[in-house]
Amino acid sequence: MILGDFHTHSKFSDGKSTVEENYAAAVNKGLKQLGCTEHGLRHIAFGTKRRNLPIERNTVDKLNEKNEIEVLLGIEANIYTSNGEIDLLPDDYRWFDYIVAAYHKTATNPSLIDFFRYNAKGLIRKKFTDREIRLFTKSYIKAITSNKVDIISHLFYGLPIDTKQVAQAAADYGVFIELNGKKVSIPDEDIYILADNKNVNFIVNSDAHSTSRIGDFSVPMAVVERLNIDKDRIVNWNKLVKFNRKK
Asked: What percentage of residues in the chain have a pLDDT greater than 70?
């Protein structure tokens, strides 16, 4: 069974419940670990506020004093430039136990030129050139090799990539590939490519925005079963997860 849910949202971003309510739901559902991950600061509509980072950190620390389950603080950071930058300042990392990173169509980019060649592509395009796919691939690889990321979330949401190259970078840097609880956007053939690299590990998360969805892994686990993915490759399957982010 899945022991930890490491992608959940609360009222600190666009979730419907508080961190405390998510915690209670996780305890009731028998989880051993809960990760709190608000949207990154450059998300136009739902980004968390920098002033709330110490507040949420304190909330998580107080919940851990109950010694019921382990609660960790992460963030669903935005990969917001074609150079793979994520929307955290150097001083922000001290608040977090781990970092999830993902491309979002609604993240702001300080460069208008880069916005239109990178961020906006997922909003307005369905077909992409080989050159564009190389650019998108580079952005993920740069994010992974920065040593600042633990999980890559919802690959292929908006932008296609060279899966083999991203898989190798994830394997080399020990970054987990998420199978997302709302929708697994990775095409079947690309999940097979990821799985073909024996050093790539997956993580299954709910992406819950309400207490009812905490610990709901039915969507990604259906994909795991259908594609016959080895459950030993899922880091939170019958195991507690320990993150080893270097910075």
From this structure: 98
Architecture per CATH, domain 4-233, reads as Alpha-Beta Barrel (3.20)
As a whole number of angstroms, the distance between CA 103 and CA 28 comes to 32
Distance CA 46, CA 137 (A): 25
Q: β-strand 70-78 against 100-102: which pairing, if any? A: parallel
Nearest Cα neighbor of 72 from 51, 100, 50, 52 is 100
pLDDT band at 147 (very low <50, low <70, confident <90, very high): confident
What is the token pair recorded at 160?
């296609």
What residues have CB less than 8 Å from 17, skipping those under 6 apart? 10, 11, 25, 210, 211
Q: In the prediction, which pLDDT does 105 show?
A: 85
Whether the predicted pLDDT of 246 surpasses 60: no
Q: Which of 4, 21, 22, 37 is nearest to 207 (CA)?
A: 37
120 vs 96: CA distance, rounded Å: 29
List beta partners, residue 180: 205
198 exposed, middle or buried (CB, 10 Å; 0-12, 13-18, 19+)? exposed
- Provide the residue ranges of all domains of the chain, joining segments of one domain with +: 4-233
Measured between alpha carbons, how far is 238 from 231 in angstroms, rounded to an integer? 9
Report d(CA 118, CA 85) in Å as an integer. Answer: 12
SS3 sequence, 35-94? EEEEECCCECCCCCCHHHHHHHHHHHHHHHCCCCCEEEEEEEEEECCCCCCECCCHHHHH
